[in-house]
Amino acid sequence: MFVSLKHGVIAIAIAVLSAPLALCADQPVEEIVVWGSDRDRTFGHSSPTSTLTPSDFASINVATTEDVVKFEPSVVIRRRFIGDSNGVMGMRGSNMFQTSRSMVFADGVPLHYLLQSRWNGAPRWAMVSASEIAKVDIHYGPFSAEYGGNSMGGVMEIETAIPQDQELHFDSSYYSQSFDDYGFDKTVSGYKTFVSYGNKVEDTSYYFSFNRLDNESQPQTFRYGGRSASATPTVVTGSILGKDERSNARNWFMDTGVVDTVTNNYKFKLGHDFGNWSALLNLAYEDRNSINDSANTYLRDAQGNPVYSGDVIDNGRQFSVPASRFASSDLERRSFNIGLRVRGQLSESVALETNISRFTVLRDESRNSSAHAEDPGHTTNGQVIDFGDTGWDTAEVNVYFDDLGVEGLALVTGMRYESYQLNVDIFSSSNYAAGSKGAFKGRSGGETKIFAGFAQLDWQLNEQWDASFGLRYEEFEADKGFYDNDDAATPEFELTQVPSRSSSKTSPKFSVGYLFGNDWSFRYSIAKAYRFPIAEELYSQYKAYNSESIANPGLLPEDGLHHNFMAERVMLNGSIRVNYFTESIKNSIESQATTLDSGTSLRTFIPIDEIETSGLEFIVNARDIFIPHLDIRFNAVYTDSEIIENDPNPSLEGNIYPRMPKWRGNLLATYHINTNWDAGVNLQYASESFGRIDNSDKEEGVYGAQDGYMRVGLKSTYRMGSGVSLGLGIDNITDEAAYVAHPWPGRTIYANFSYDY
User: Nearest-5° angle of CA 308, CA 312, CA 315?
Assistant: First the structure.
């Protein structure tokens, strides 16, 4: 059935893509500046929404796309440093590691990575450059039938500009960060260079851009010694006595050093207008290389030589130092994304939009040593992790009806097909630096597919009341799954083949709104949502340096019930909004890990029976507030997320769900000194939280903790005329040291130059 459904959706999409040529060749041309700003039809008022435009970025030190959205209500993005490939995102009741509960689109092309989770599941932010963003709409919760269960947290829709005339843009930024903690005290730096050129010739617009980001990070990992019972430990000095996140006394003996990341992004967009129709082709290529080969040992033996492995004793405290802790890594990743969107009018009251896309991992290879290059025991032996035949395909068709014969009644209906493929091979290597591949050490992978059909009816009953009724049907299939089950006594590498499985779910949605006078509006929304497991959750099984994973192919979909009540007052220059939301997620898929005595991290995906989250958002967006020329975007969020039921381990019941701070807040305040000069301040706040599901990690200010923090930044931009602008900024001005497992950056200085022609 899936094959026929897939072919059916793709056939409809291809037919629609050719329709504008036949239907609208002689229609007058309508200028389109931002693809998606005039969506032709705006359905789904059922979801609370936040909108950003470039004027809202004025107080943000923007280096990458994540910076643009990280100050929005109930959005948390853990970007550990500028250029981090693991910029994971959480929204509302979904924490930053539940990456498959939020969706990100750029010009209709998916950027969310529904193949892996946790730090590996970050959206592919680099596929769109911050410098090309024209608008961002954020829809909270799964209240619109247009989106599947992966919208439990919310949906982020990024729209980019396309030229309407000849234009050239250039900007370059320099970054410098100071970081001092444990045994590391250095300044790291980087830069970004972006250039774009575009034009519109009659009905055709084209756009080219190149973005290069080269940056060094602070150390991401600090290690403490494991258990040791050796009768002949080596006497050393230099370890740092401190506590871990669970308040255990530890000897910290190393950090992983600077991570040097270079990312090149190439972008081409081609747009064409066919009267009342428009088409947009998007091509994006990412070339990323990340090297981490400068691990630092704090240990010295009696002769002053660095110590990289073995059993040691420091001031009477004995512990082990695994050589693999100092392993170097070299990540090389190349990805290609293609998307095509066509939209237009079938008649005066009927509009259509279709999107097709393909994301391909051309190369994703991590080469790892088994020890530090200066370790006397170092050899060229290591391992190579390779993602081959990995990527996804999507196709969707939506039809919008304005006139159904009843005044105020409108309908959107459509179909969507998604197919995801994940394959991971781990090889032993006799020369890790060269990427040579020997025998398999681990293999896993598989495919997941979702076909969906939906309909949503919006009814403006009168001037005060409106209602929305939605229904989404989804079929899920997991296929071609496998993971390693090797018998070391046999020459071949045995695999366990996982039988195919399928299921289907139907998700109803409802929303009702009331307008009181001209200023106040109220809305209640309720929705069911089912989030199907992704390939990694089902099939991931491997043994690699310092980590192991166990597959769980029997996982069932997450089952969510979501409510939102909104009250909003619109003022002359802005708005004040309050949202109260609750969500109950049954069968919540959680990556649960433990650390073995050897120091190896062992994880698998196990469901929690039920998690309940409630939250209150207070949001103010206003211009010329308090004094003329002062604009603010302020939000504060209180969230309570608890484990309500967990029969396999009742001791977890009542615990606070990990990585969910009680309080979060953001502020952007911009003062327009004159038409050419802006000055602003930004602030991010979060209270402390837990990183472990047993809530045992209560220590603050240490590696592995989930610290509270308040980060304050400044930004000023001066436009000199003739297209030249200069910017200066600083983030974390107080140089606060804080951890979200890994360390947040220290004080960071920004300098920017840009030119527009």
Answer: 120
Measured over the CA atoms of residue 692, residue 695, residue 701 and residue 702, the dihedral's sign is: negative
Predicted confidence (pLDDT) per residue in 22-69, tens digit: 333 333 323 335 544 444 444 457 889 999 999 999 999 999 999 999
Contact status, residue 299 vs residue 307, Cβ threshold 8 Å:
yes
Would you give the DSSP letter of residue 557? P
Q: CB of 26 within 8 A of CB of 275?
A: yes
pLDDT at 600 (0 to 100): 57
Q: What pLDDT digit, counting tens, does each position of 345-401 carry?
A: 999 999 999 999 999 999 999 999 999 999 999 999 999 999 989 999 999 999 999
Ramachandran bin of 83, using left for φ above 0, alpha for ψ from -120 to 50, beta for the remaining angles = left
The predicted pLDDT at position 590 comes to 84
Whole-number pLDDT of residue 31? 36
Residues contacting residue 89 through CB under 8 Å, at least 6 positions apart: 66, 75, 76, 77, 78, 96, 99, 102, 104, 122, 123, 156
Domain ranges in the chain are 2-221+256-293+328-756
Contacts 24+ apart (CB under 8 A), 589-592: 589/531, 589/533, 589/537, 589/555, 589/558, 590/693, 591/97, 591/117, 591/118, 591/537, 592/693
Least confident range from 12-26, 144-158, 730-744: namely 12-26
The pTM of the full predicted model, rounded to 2 decimals, is 0.91
User: What pLDDT shows up at residue 12?
Assistant: 37
User: Phi, psi (5° rounding) for residue 90?
Assistant: -125, 155
Q: What does the pLDDT read at residue 118?
A: 86
Backbone angles phi, psi at 463, to 5 degrees: -65, -25
Distance CA(173)–CA(195), nearest Å, equals: 12
Burial (0-12, 13-18, 19+ Cβ within 10 Å), 463: exposed
State which CATH number among 3.30.365.10, 3.40.718.10, 3.20.20.80, 2.40.170.20 fits the domain covering 2-221+256-293+328-756: 2.40.170.20
Inter-residue contact 629 to 659 (CB < 8 Å): no
Amino acid symbol at 27: Q
Contact 420, 451 (CB under 8 A): no
What would you measure as the largest C-alpha separation in the chain, in angstroms?
90
Question: Per-residue pLDDT averaged across 232-256, rounded?
Answer: 96
pLDDT at res. 649: 86
Estimate to the nearest angstrom the gap between the alpha carbon of 682 and the chain centroid. 21
